[in-house]
Amino acid sequence: MYRVSPFVRHFAISLVSGVIVATLWANLSSDSYYDFIEWRLFDLDLPDVLSPITASFTPASLTSHVLMPFFMFFVGKELWEAVMLERGALSGGKALVPLGGAIGALVGAALVWVAVGSMIEVAEEASFGVGWQVPLGSDVVLCYLLGRRAFGSGHPALHLLLLVSISCDFFGLLILGLSYPRGGLLSLAWLGLPLAASTSVWLLFGRYGHAHLPERQRQRAMQLWPYALAGLLSYIGIAAVGLPPALGFLPVIPVIPSAVRAFGLFAEAESLLHDPLNRLTHLMIRPLSVVLFFFGLTRGGIDLGAYAPTTLTLLAAFWIGKPLGFVAGCATASRVLRRSLPAGISPRDLGLVALLMGVGFTVPALAIDTSLPGGAMAEAARLGLGISIVMGVIVISLARLRAR
Asked: How far apart are CA 109 and CA 364, in angstroms?
């Protein structure tokens, strides 16, 4: 089994370090912490066709809306290769059972959130089902860090966990954007910008990135600046249409020349590849560690005294709804489509993967500010995200007991 590159572990350490610093800061000096993350750095007076109001950038919004799209591009590249390239972990029919599990996890989390919230939520600002988008996302780097301790670096279950957590992240962001549209039908015209940027860069550069073409044409396709420019235009279109900016660079991934075969999710062997898609992601590795630290710092400040019914609602969605939904989704897809679990994964492994789906932070933290009323409910949910990491400790303990 391929070896996962150590930078994923570095990403997790950076994120956790930011969360720890933010939590200490928020509990020791809450006023200065919130003044910092809400400090208005600058205002951007955009045209009305882009934004009807002046865009104000704070450390929190700058990190979430401008820097995190690079991380989602990095993760999206891995998912694209897993689905489309030869020997990809999800190529052919291998994607069907994990996809069924991811969909089941989303449905289970949303249903449990609504059911539990309707029974115990007492906040005056809470309406029926408010915030059901929060538990949909997952956390790729934390799931990897915890899964690696539970399964080992080369176990197939670790790779299944990465695939499903990435899928949940993208589905969660997309559903979040579709749940809160803005601008009406007119804003949908902005979807033409990512489409035009991707099509143009493919016609002018990307389609020449094949070894059997003349060297001059192939070298033309190997330049990075056309794909960076297309990514910028795609980002503008996605943000203007009202979808989460974190998805902004994803439409250009399919048109960037990539390797002819996949080496596995976050495979260490990819460091030796020199196609444009891998070169772009190689350039991002060191900066992304800083980005994830600042994301943890600006979005991870957990008020330890913020416990409320919303905390229990979130934990129920993560620890009950998501695992049960994941197992049910995998079982349904396997039976209906007559597909088996990925090779090397036992039912016990699947159970541990399901429990690890109960850990979440990055994408749920992004969803909190959009789908929940501010104040007590948001902070209570953020506390729940911090507590959800305890499930990883439980899974590691169960894995060691099974090994004995």
From this structure: 12
CA terminus-to-terminus distance, the chain: 23
Of the candidates 170, 167, 195, 182, the residue with the CA atom closest to the CA atom of residue 326: 167
| Greater model confidence, 168 or 338 | 168
Residue 111, pLDDT above cutoff 50 = yes
Confidence of residue 178 (pLDDT cuts 50, 70, 90): confident
The neighbour count for residue 233, using CB atoms within 10 Å, is 19
> Using an 8 Å Cβ cutoff, are 63 and 299 in contact?
yes
Q: Measure the CA–CA gap between 170 and 179, rounded to whole angstroms.
A: 14
For residue 314, tell me if it sits in a domain: yes
Nearest to 69 by CA among 382, 374, 366: 366
Q: Where are the beta strands (DSSP E) in 142-253?
A: none
Q: Tell me the β-bridge partners of 360.
A: none
Determine contact, residues 164/326, Cβ cutoff 8 Å: yes
Instruction: Give the gyration radius of the chain's Cα atoms.
Output: 21
CATH number at residue 41: 1.20.1530.10
| Measured CA distances, 202 to 114, 291, 336 (Å) | 43, 29, 37
If one counts the domains in the chain, the total is 1
1: in domain: no
In a domain, 332, yes or no: yes
Q: What is the pLDDT of residue 195?
A: 93
Q: Which helix (H) or strand (E) holds 42?
A: strand 42-44
Domain range holding 367?
A: 7-403
258: which residues sit within 8 A by CB, 6+ positions away? Answer: 77, 80, 81, 85, 275, 276, 277, 278
Contact present, 259 and 273 (Cβ < 8 Å): yes
In a domain, 79, yes or no: yes
Rounded to an integer, what distance in angstroms lies between the CA atom of residue 14 and that of residue 186? 40
- DSSP label at 342? P
